[in-house]
Specification:
Elements (H helix, E strand, L loop, with lengths): L7 H24 L6 H14 L3 E2 L16 E5 L2 E3 L14 E10 L2 E10 L5 H19 L7 H14 L3 E2 L5 E3 L6 E5 L22 E4 L2 E3 L5 E3 L6 E3 L5 E3 L2 E6 L2 E4 L4
Antiparallel strand pairs: 1-4, 2-4, 3-12, 4-5, 6-10, 7-8, 7-9, 9-14, 10-13, 11-12, 14-15
Helix pairs in contact: 1-2, 3-4
Length: 261
């Protein structure tokens, strides 16, 4: 495994990219309402990235078993976990929840983050699920300190989410971020028990390591499946799910969140 550490100057550029992503999220959050299509949200993001001098990291992203991703953002509604394709036909309804993932290239580096937004008035269960996912992200960021390992971040998410009575997704992970959107190391939201074998290598957290933490929380069972479009991932049991994400840099002074407003 090759982990590329970033210099303080490079992290500063990534902070600029992350701020652009945060501004796009703020605009989309304000636009989310019953009757709005996911394609309208995609158009908002595309225009804002262009105005900021950034390019969409997701648009035309390649996949070996599907056409390149056709949109600027991913827009995943209710039981859709990640990689939902924006569409003029997908109209948001009162009570929905929508995950909005945005990535951009700016000055040679990537900004990447996701939010989940309630559409109008949502059920108490939906609101709690969003709150738990957001708190799991906070817990993971708090664990992102020099002296810990990526295992500690994963365990922090899993312990918190499962203590709330929800499931963590085991089919997808967070990831390193830098000049490419997906770099080493993987940042899972769970870890195997001591007597089991892990497919992930636990990496020491050192200054210059930058990664995206992505809690993915399901109200029901943890299984997922990919739809026929080759991108959209849904929960196997059709239960509600939430995805949130920040890009974080490890520094001597603690975690630096690069995708805040």
């Amino acid at each position: 495994m090759t982990v590329e550490l970033k210099t303080p100057a490079e992290i500063d550029i990534m902070r600029e990219a992350g701020r652009i992503v945060a501004q796009v999220h703020a605009a989309m959050r304000a636009a989310v309402a019953p009757g709005v299509s996911t394609l309208e949200l995609d158009r908002i993001a595309a225009q804002m990235l262009e105005d900021a001098g950034a390019t969409a990291a997701f648009l035309n992203y390649p996949k070996h078993d599907a056409p390149n991703f056709p949109a600027t953002i991913t827009a995943s509604v209710n039981e859709e976990l990640v990689h939902g394709i924006p569409s003029a036909e997908r109209i948001l309804q009162e009570g929905d929840v929508i995950s909005l993932d945005v990535g951009c290239h700016y000055r040679g580096f990537v900004g990447d983050a996701a939010i989940t937004v309630p559409v109008g008035r949502v059920s108490p269960g939906a609101r709690r699920l969003i709150s738990v996912a957001e708190k799991a992200l906070e817990v993971a960021i708090a664990a992102s300190v020099v002296g810990n390992e990526t295992r500690d971040v994963a365990v922090a998410v899993q312990k918190y989410v499962e203590a709330q009575g929800y499931s963590v997704v085991k089919d997808y992970t967070g990831h390193g971020v830098g000049r490419a959107m997906h770099e080493e190391p993987a940042i899972p939201n769970w870890w195997v028990r001591k007597n089991q074998t892990s497919s992930f290598e636990s990496v020491a957290l050192v200054p210059g390591l930058v990664y995206a933490i992505e809690p993915m929380v399901i109200a029901g069972l943890p299984g997922t499946e990919e739809l026929a479009d080759g991108w959209t991932v849904v929960t196997l049991d059709g239960s509600l799910c939430v995805h949130v994400e920040h890009t974080v840099a490890i520094t001597e002074d603690g975690p630096r969140i690069l995708t805040l407003p």
